[in-house]
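Protein modeling request. Please complete all fields; requests missing the sequence field cannot be processed.
Requester role: graduate student
Desired output: 3D structure, token encoding
Chains: 1
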Amino acid sequence: MTRLPLTVAALLTPLWLSACGEAPKEVAPPRTVLLAEVTAAPGAVSQITAEVRQAQRARLSFDVAGRIARIAVQPGDAFAKGQLLAELDPEPIRLRLAQARADASAARAEFLNRAEQLRQQSALFNDGAATQTALSMARAADQAARGKAEAADAAVALASRDLKHAVLMAPFAGRVVSRAEEPMQDIAAGQVLLTIDGEGQFEVVASLPSQARAAVSVGSEATITVADGTTLPVRLTQLSDHLGKGATLEAIFRTNGAPAALAAGQLLPLRLTGGPASGQLAIPVTAVLPGATAGTDSVFVFDSIRGQVTRKDVTLAGYAGDRALVRSGLALGDRVVSAGTAFLTDGQHVREFEGASQLESR
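Delivered output (362 residues):
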């Protein structure tokens, strides 16, 4: 076996001992970052399905119950304002009116009789020939007879009204959409018989997502696209103050006149023309790394699988409050670093701050 000279071994021994005792180099832990989710821009709406309907429309019913004697129109029929549409059998109502008039005549006669008795009791009381009790009874009878007479007169008025409302007259010119009953059937008061549409201006009704509230108001403009691809302008006239089903707002738009391409019941795509453009996204302003020149902005996008960030260029369309509006470069649902971007590098491993909340949609 070859032996090292004693002097060489003596020199190397401290080096071996030093190498064996050297501590491993520490690796810095991943930086903790605050993340925010990329959302739709406030009020940005890609496309909404809207329903066309007539601005004038009605569901007609009789104010009185009875048997349908005649329905003068069919679905699809046109009619003029004031035209007879349907009527009930008037005979039962006429009989009730006759009975009410007879009851009213008897009640008036009874009232006149009680009034005369009261006059006589008052004269006798003044002469000392009648007691206070007799006078009080006469007054009570007179008041009761007066009440009966007034009630009978009211019954006559109601029966007369029922006879008048036993016919359905067209409140405006239009067309019949549907009818629910047939002649010779009994119908209740208030039960819908005919659904009608007017002829004239159309309405376009849409359910807007709640985030659209910030982008639209009464007077905002939009467009609808008809079957041949033509776009027609519409204007918002009513916007609900309360969220409906699916957290939506009912919006009613009006057309300019009555375009021939529209028909009640159509479902057409509607696009808002005010507010942020369709398809824009939103991120916190603090997530943007400004570029040296216009159009060279960037953000750090988090990769949850690799646990690292990637720097990506984005094109901004502007700002809305504390949000930057992104035209391109990101996808809905991406997660970007929203704070401390100046201290990051492309490809750096990071860790999400567990107490952070995602960016709320506004």
